[in-house]
Amino acid sequence: MRFLFDMPLITPALGFIMRLCYELVQNVGVAIILFTIIVRIVMFPISLKQQKTMSKTQFFNPRIKEIQTKYRGNQQKQNEEMAKLQKEGYSPAGGCLPMLLTTLILFGVLGVVYKPMTYFEHIPKEQIEILKEIAIDIEYNKVLDAHTDDEEFGETAAENERKRIDTKYKALQSELLVIGSYKNNKTVYSESANVEKDTISTLNAIEGNITLFGIDFSRIPPLPWDSENKPVFPLVLIPILSFIFAMGQMLVTQTIQKKTSPETLEQQGTMKYMMYFMPVMSLVIAFQFPAGAGFYWALSSAVGILQSLIIYKLWPPAKLREEMLAELEKKGYKTDNVVVVEKHDGKKTTKKESEMTQSERKEYNRKKLEEARKADLEKYGEVGTTALSGEDNDSDESSEKDNSR
Questions:
Q1: For 256, what's the count of Cα atoms within 13 Å in the CB-facing half-sphere?
Q2: Which of 216, 253, 324, 328 has its CA 20 to 30 A from that of 167?
Q3: Which residues partner with 211 through β-bridges?
Q4: Between β-strands 215-216 and 338-342, what pairing exists: parallel, antiparallel or unpaired?
Q5: Residue by residue, what is the 3-state secondary structure of the chain?
């Protein structure tokens, strides 16, 4: 699990970018804001591609349904036909890349926030290890002082406590623990012969720069009812904002998807309701990690909302569809068929698929599916069986009526 927070290449690369942002503004919170904007700008083309993928999915959906109905029970044939669609440009996993990248970046940011001495201030590893040893000694001595008059607290118990503290400072949050220890024991660290003066100066800088608007980004937001970790405000705002912006991004995404590819949204079934679970998860997770990570999460969702609205404004569904059709036509695929459209008054007319309204396209796709099902039933002789069953039922009903007379 720790690998996710310290991924080779990814975490150091994100740490390097975060360091550049930090050097510009000399504040962890403002550096996270700059970092979030940079990440979203870099991911903008990927988000735009995701919107285009949704438009492509709408174009291929009728053919996918037709394949699933026509070759029902023949998985090999379905796979062959789906492979042909993928050659034309259909990508069943096209929308997964932005989500995967967002997740990887989030874990990378967590790794950076957990190690402010390494990534923000570049304190040498040797000095960090010395600081850890001092923090361990301070905490261990406090335990011994607390059990001075406890006769049952022997050498074995003391050794177990030492092991527990050692393990604690080997964990991911060790640098944050050292910073917290330094705040309360500055004299001990300053008087240590092994700690360099530059390291003390750097620790003082981190102490002042890791806070913004009264929020200490090295602390984990305490639960409102956790009286031991007061004060709750304003630290508790981080999880709340994470939830609000995550919910907002989810609603904006669903609204755009409904207008861009309603068929895809309908096909998701109960899966679309799982999207409501993600904002709740962001709320819960934001209470488990340092506030810096939750702050990034909230900002990322907020900028994501703005990004989605910009894409929808500059590349509306009609424009995306035109670009997608032009792209397929360049590859030699016939995309704009002339079809017969039946209106509500029973009148029929011919129209290009690209000129069809949403309701006309939906009705046209429904009728195509009905025709495909009928052809499938006739092929396997099930229509005749159904019809015969119907005649038998009619005969039985007629006989019952005659008997009743």
A1: 29
A2: 216
A3: 216
A4: unpaired
A5: CHHHHCCCCHHHHHHHHHHHHHHHHCCHHHHHHHHHHHHHHHHHHHHHHHHHHHHHHHHHHHHHHHHHHHCCCCHHHHHHHHHHHHHHCCCCCCCHHHHHHHHHHHHHHHHHHHCHHHHCCCCCHHHHHHHHHHHHHHHHHHHHHHCCCCCCCCHHHHHHHHHHHHHHCCCCCHHHHHHHHHHHCHHHHHHCCCCCHHHHHHHHHHHHHCEECCEECCCCCCCCCCHHHCCCCCCCHHHHHHHHHHHHHHHHHHHHHHHHCHHHHHHCCCHHHHCCHHHHHHHHHHCCCCHHHHHHHHHHHHHHHHHHHHHHHHCCHHHHHHHHHHHHHHCCCCCCCEEEEECCCCCEEEEEHHHCCHHHHHHHHHHHHHHHHHHHHHHCCHHHHHHHHHHHHHHHHHHHHHHHC
> Is the pLDDT reported for residue 242 higher than 50?
yes
Preceding omega of 231 cis (within 30 degrees of 0): yes
pLDDT at residue 163 in the model? 95
171-186 confidence digits (pLDDT tens): 888 999 999 999 999 9
What span, in angstroms and rounded, lies between the C-alpha atoms of 169 and 133? 9
The residue written with tokens 């009812």 in the block is 225
Residue owning tokens 């009928």: 374
The model's confidence at residue 366, banded by pLDDT at 50, 70 and 90, is confident
**Does residue 269 have a pLDDT over 60?**
no
Q: What is the pTM of this model?
A: 0.74
Mean pLDDT computed over 205-225: 87
d(CA 357, CA 267): 20
Average pLDDT across the chain, whole number: 79
Question: How far is Cα 161 from Cα 170, in angstroms, rounded to an integer?
Answer: 14
How far, in Å, CA of 133 to CA of 187, rounded? 15
| Tens-digit pLDDT profile for residues 378-400 | 665 544 444 334 444 444 444 44
**Contacts of residue 364, Cβ cutoff 8 Å, sequence gap at least 6:** 62, 339, 341, 356
How far apart are the C-alpha atoms of 270 and 258, rounded to whole Å?
A: 15
